[in-house]
Structures are given as structure tokens and as C-alpha cells.
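Still learning folds. Look over my entry:

…
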Amino acid sequence: MILPFTSHLGQVVLNDKALARARRIGTNVGNAMKMTDSIVEYYGDEYWTCPICHQNLLKVRGKYVECPICDIKGSLEVIGDEIRVNFIEEALQQYRWGHESLSRHQKAMRMSNDIYRKHKAEIQEKMKKYEAYHPMM
């Protein structure tokens, strides 16, 4: 079983999809670094979006947005020229750092640890490729 997350160094080499995504992200970041200041702009001056952690980074998940830190879901509302996030009350009660969510996290970490132990030799073998990589600077 391949989990969508990893908890041990090198465990990601078991997930080809995650490695492909990491390559795409690296390419995108590299391309963005080539852009001049006249092309790239920072949009946003609302620094208190999430009512729990007070940050404004949101993930789009279907028709909802989500705080990736607190794991709470909300919907977007456009009023005039302003975008507002309306967080779902139920989600506010089940945020990542609450008792129920921490219990789920601990269960997932135990599962990940079991997978890591089972595949440790395979992980170490696959990691050699990445440990030997030395980019030309």
C-alpha cells in the first residue's frame, strides 16, 4: 500500500506519482525563478484568512477551499471586488489540531511506520540514485 504522505526519509521513493509531481514542481519553480520582477507580482494583502492559524494560503479542493495547515474547509464568495472565505462551522470544530484529528494522524503515522519498516531495504536501495545526484551549478 502506498500512502499519499511519507513520514520517513526516503520513503517517498516508493511513490512514483509523488516523484513525478516533485519533478514538475521543481521545473515550475525553476521557470518562475527565471521571470523578471516586471512579470511576477504578489497578489494579496489579506493576512488573516484562516480563523485558526491566521494565514492566507488556501488549497482549492473541488468547489471548496481548504487551509492546508488547519485542514478546515470553506467556500468562496465574491462580493463586489472582494473575495471572502466562508469557513464551514462543522469544519471549524474538526480542525487538524483537535482531538479527533490528532487521533487520525497518529493512526496514519503508525501505518506509515509499518510500511517504512517493511520496505526499508527497498527504500535504501532506491535512495542511492538520489544520494548520488550532484547537479551542476
Notes: The chain is about 40% helix and 15% strand. Strands lie at 59-61, 64-66, 73-79, 82-87. The first strand starts at residue 59 and ends at 61.
